[in-house]
Amino acid sequence: MSTFLQKLYAYHAWANHDLFDKLGALDQEQHKTELHTALRLINHYYVVARIFAAHLTGSQHGYTSDNTDETPTLGDLRAAVASSDQWYLDYLRGSSSETLAEAVPFTFTDGDKGYMTREEMLTHVALHGGYHRGEVGRMLWQLSVTPPWDTFAVYLHQSEPARRRQGG
After folding, report:
1. Which of 41, 72, 140, 162 meets the CB 3.0–4.6 Å disulfide criterion with 147?
2. Which helix (H) or strand (E) holds 12?
3. Is residue 88 within 8 Å of residue 122, measured between CB atoms?
4. 3-163 belongs to which CATH class?
């Protein structure tokens, strides 16, 4: 079990939740184009997370690309991402250090072969999601909407308020 990865995934779920709250508050008609672009980006990192979940479990994912042809609704995507985030938190709770160190071969959706340790896969999925949340945050700035505070430091201090009193 990796305490760091558990914190990283708790942060990832927290940041996704905040981002969906912010997107849900947008005027859905006025910002239709930007919202569609945001949903495409989020759906992409969701699909990648599901592909890597399949790699982690040795199952087939059924995706032929790193996104879907159809764009899900905000509500459907929010529910899917929350479910995926919970899956990763549950997976980490049941994983030993030895399991996380195992190298797993897999095939990318473009047919290329590769392998990563489970820990590397998990790190990739979390960092990949953060990268694309940042893209959506930048879009929000361009709409004059303050994006969520999507940083690990903010998450740690909100989830563990005692850290504010233990400064150095």
Report:
1. 140
2. helix 3-24
3. yes
4. mainly alpha
